[in-house]
Specification:
Elements lengths: L9 E5 L4 H12 L3 E5 L3 H13 L3 E4 L7 H14 L5 E4 L15 H29 L2 E6 L12 H21 L4 E8 L8 H4 L2 H10 L9 H11 L10 E4 L8
Parallel strand pairs: 1-2, 1-4, 2-3, 4-5, 5-6, 6-7
Helix pairs in contact: 1-8, 3-4, 4-5
């Protein structure tokens, strides 16, 4: 038996048109899952779907804005219509419209961060968890960040939201565990994505990060995709309410 296979499973991955979300979608599909690729822009999603299909996987695209509950309801309904009951939910999409101290944080930016990074994950989870409970099987994975376990002078609101994601996973794991539903977080460190470009596109900042990271490099999206496969598969069947840190060792060095 291959404990990492996901044959027959249906997965939704939000924010999967690029970066970490795309890697997770591609990894899940490579291990047999039927994957719904979702982000705000349909053409970008379809590009990922085409890549998955070219590699022999099965995928479809459904555009949705995570900040709009009606669009999330559509995402779930359309997934069921095309592929059937949802087995795996990956809440990866997030926002960070502000870079700077919290003393200068505009109210609308803070609201957007909280809405997209916490409330939307709560909405989406509640849309799929009852169905999973009926089958006594299901997995929810929330992509958090090491920002949720460290303070930051310039990403404070984002870090607050990512810490809340970890607690959301713990709460849901407690509430739904008796139904054989597992809920976990992945907390990446700095990964080379467009979302984190401000943190790695500066040569001086990048050099400092590499010098202070035990593995001597920043992450690649494909460093994260396989972790989602582990958490979604039989291999991770006894793991719930946890946060798996994947940061090259940054958080162990103080």
């Amino acid at each position: 038996m291959n404990a990492f296979r996901l044959d027959g499973k249906v997965a939704i991955v939000t924010g999967s048109s690029r970066g970490i979300g795309r890697s997770i979608a591609e990894h899940l599909a490579a291990h047999g899952a039927r994957v719904v690729v979702s982000s705000r822009k349909l053409p970008a999603c379809e590009e990922v779907v085409n890549a998955i299909r070219s590699a022999g996987g099965e995928a479809t695209a459904v555009a949705a804005n995570i900040g709009d509950k009606a669009q999330l309801e559509y995402l779930v309904a359309e997934t069921r219509k095309r592929f059937g009951p949802i087995d795996i939910l990956v809440c990866n999409a997030a926002s960070n419209p502000y870079f700077g101290p919290m003393s200068g944080l505009p109210d609308d930016a803070f609201q957007k961060i909280l809405q997209n990074n916490i409330v939307s994950n709560h909405w989406l989870s509640n849309l799929v968890l009852p169905e999973m409970a009926q089958r006594k099987d299901g997995v929810v994975i929330i992509v958090s960040s090491i920002g949720g376990i460290k303070g930051s002078a310039v990403l404070g609101a984002y870090c607050v939201s990512k810490a809340a994601d970890m607690q959301l996973a713990r709460n849901l794991a407690v509430e739904w565990g008796k139904q054989n539903i597992r809920v976990n977080c992945i907390a990446p460190g700095l990964v080379k994505t467009d979302f984190a470009r401000a943190l790695w596109d500066n040569p001086k900042l990048l050099a400092h990060t590499e010098a202070t990271t035990p593995l001597g490099r920043i992450g690649d999206p494909d460093d994260i995709g396989g972790i989602a496969v582990f958490l979604a598969s039989r291999a991770g069947a006894f793991v719930t309410g946890q946060t798996i840190v994947a940061d090259g060792g940054v958080t162990i060095t103080g």
